[in-house]
Amino acid sequence: MRTGFITGLMLLVTLLTGCDSMQSLTEAEQVERTIRQEVRRDLRGLNALTDAAQATPYDGFAWRRGERLQVRQRQEQALLLLEQVEVPEIIATAVAQRIPSFSLVRYQQGWLVVFDTYVSPQCQVVYAYAYRGHLADTPLCSKDVFAEQANGRCQSPITEEWQVFKEWFFARSLLEEGNPACVQSASRFFESND
Question: PROSITE patterns attached here (predicted)?
Answer without folding.
Answer: PROKAR_LIPOPROTEIN (PS51257)
